[in-house]
Design goal:
The chain has about 450 residues and is α+β, with helices and mostly antiparallel strands. The protein has 3 domains: about 100 residues, Phosphorylase Kinase, domain 1, CATH 3.30.200; about 170 residues, Orthogonal Bundle (Transferase(Phosphotransferase), domain 1), CATH 1.10.510; about 170 residues, no CATH class. Helix content is about 35%, strand content about 30%. It has 12 helices and 22 strands. A 6-stranded antiparallel β-barrel has the order 1-2-3-4-6-5. The protein has a 6-stranded antiparallel β-sheet with strand order 18-17-16-15-14-22. β12 and β13 form a beta hairpin. α3 runs antiparallel to α8. The longest helix has 25 residues. The termini are far apart. About 30% of the residues are buried. It comes from Roseofilum halophilum BLCC-M91.
């Protein structure tokens, strides 16, 4: 048997003899796998040493997974995944009568989410969100590799909160790569409560990692393992066990939807939606949103009654003259350069006139277009106008409206409507080039009108 402070002399894959001194066992599995904190005596650096005992009772699939983990780790290069260092075998004499296979990785000082939970640790909402965002960044990297790399065992014990403040994803013992692309058979792995049904059917995909992360966040937010929470139609029921804001709860529910096609399409999509949530809201018995005052000097007009909500958003040049002029000047400079280039290539006056008029119209649409948005019980309408002439009208159904988002993109703030129907998800941008307090006001007015249960028939000018 292996013991603490034992020194293992091994022949590495680089054909160099190396020595590792064992210190403390970090974990073990029933399949004969052990994880140790050790020291690489050649560099005097702490390392994580994963060892697999080769015995007659061992399943060959265990060895295949162990070798696959080593192969995949060698190809990974991410700051929040412990780096691969070495792979070796240990003879029977040094292994206490049993041959061993060894995998050496960078050691990450810190504590796992599981350790914090077992020690009574609790996580604030921002911590839950930060953990989700950090792991999603790692999954974006893994899933974009060719072929994609699936972790297949995301759970609290495999997420480390490093002493440096970073969040690390560890233990790639269930990793799947080439099999996901070529269709060859592979071992069904995963941890009950965290792995989705399709993974236990041997059909793991990228969205399976999203489910596992969502289940992990449920454990972190509630303090209760997902397997111990109530389930209804295979959905984890946790809303009444947490004080997370409603949007974040809905986001986690989408991550853990038992229907694969109803989860986020990718880790990037999940990450984007996590940070495009509606502005923070306060509720009274879940019905009324807190009032956000109308910003000073805004030219945006909102009129509401219990049955109708109307927004009138004037052109950009009226709302922000200085920025609009700057953008127009930049656009004109670019246009002039393009126009001169076209002029050198073409000598047809008609074509030049069409190009010129097209550019003029685009600039006018950008700076002089106004928007009117009308919400009614059954539908909403977005109408774009130029000098009073309606050139674009969009209509959606109110029952498909899932939320109102404040979106920041390229230093611009805009308000978007998020909708969902049987064919998928879609968004409508209803206002752009806003000041942050204008965006917050518009978003809250829309949310308040949609969710308000007031029977007050008095028309109010907001």
């Amino acid at each position: 048997m292996l013991q603490a402070e034992q020194v293992l002399s091994v022949q590495s894959t680089s054909s160099q003899p190396l020595e590792y001194q064992l210190h403390r066992k970090l974990g073990r599995t029933a399949a004969g796998r052990q994880t140790w904190l050790a020291t690489d005596l050649s560099s005097n650096e702490p390392v994580t040493l994963k060892l697999l005992a080769f015995n007659p009772q061992m399943q060959w699939d265990e060895l295949k997974l162990f070798e696959r983990e080593a192969q995949v780790l060698q190809a990974l290069d991410h700051a929040c995944i412990p780096k691969y260092r070495d792979y070796f075998s240990l003879d029977q004499e040094m292994g206490g009568g049993v041959p061993w296979f060894g995998l050496v990785q960078e050691y990450i000082p810190g504590a796992s989410l599981q350790e914090r939970l077992e020690n009574g640790g609790r996580f604030a909402e921002e911590e839950v969100k930060d953990i989700g965002a950090s792991v999603l960044k790692i999954l974006i990297y893994l899933h974009r590799l060719s072929p994609p790399v699936l972790h297949r065992d995301i759970k609290p014990s495999n997420i480390i909160l490093g002493e440096d403040g970073q969040v690390y994803l560890v233990d790639f013992g269930a990793v799947q790569s080439q099999a996901a692309v070529t269709g060859v058979t592979f071992t069904v792995v995963g941890t009950s409560g965290y792995a989705p049904l399709e993974q236990f059917w041997g059909r793991a995909v990228a969205a399976s990692d999203l489910y596992a992360l969502g289940a992990t966040l449920i454990h972190v937010a509630t303090g209760v393992p997902p397997v111990d929470l109530p389930h209804r139609e295979n959905r984890i029921q946790f809303r009444d066990r947490t004080t997370l804001n409603p949007y974040l709860i809905t986001w986690i529910e989408k991550m853990t939807d038992p229907a694969l096609e109803k989860r986020f399409s990718s880790a990037q999509d999940a990450f984007d939606q996590l940070y495009n949530q509606p502005v923070a809201i306060e509720t009274t018995e879940g019905a009324k949103f807190r009032h956000v005052p109308k910003p000073d000097n805004t030219l945006i007009y909102i009129w509401r009654s219990p049955r109708t909500l109307k927004l009138e958003i004037p052109p950009r040049f009226e709302r922000n003259t200085f920025r609009t002029l700057a953008l127009v000047l930049v656009s004109l400079m670019i246009t002039r350069t393009m126009f001169m280039g076209v002029l050198r290539l073409l000598h047809n006056p008609l074509i030049l006139l069409v190009v010129f008029l097209t550019i003029v119209v685009l600039i006018l649409l950008f700076v002089a277009s106004e928007t009117q948005v009308t919400f009614e019980k059954e539908k909403f309408t977005i109408e774009r106008k130029l000098f009073g002439w309606s050139y674009l009208t969009q209509t959606g159904f109110s029952e498909q409206l899932m939320g109102v988002f404040i979106h920041h993109e390229n230093y611009a703030t805009m308000v978007k409507l998020h909708c969902e129907n049987y064919s998928g998800e879609y968004t409508y941008a209803i206002a752009a080039a806003l000041r942050p307090n204008e965006a917050a006001w518009i978003a809250h007015e829309i949310q308040d009108w949609i969710y308000s249960q007031s029977d007050d028939e008095v028309i109010s000018d907001r």
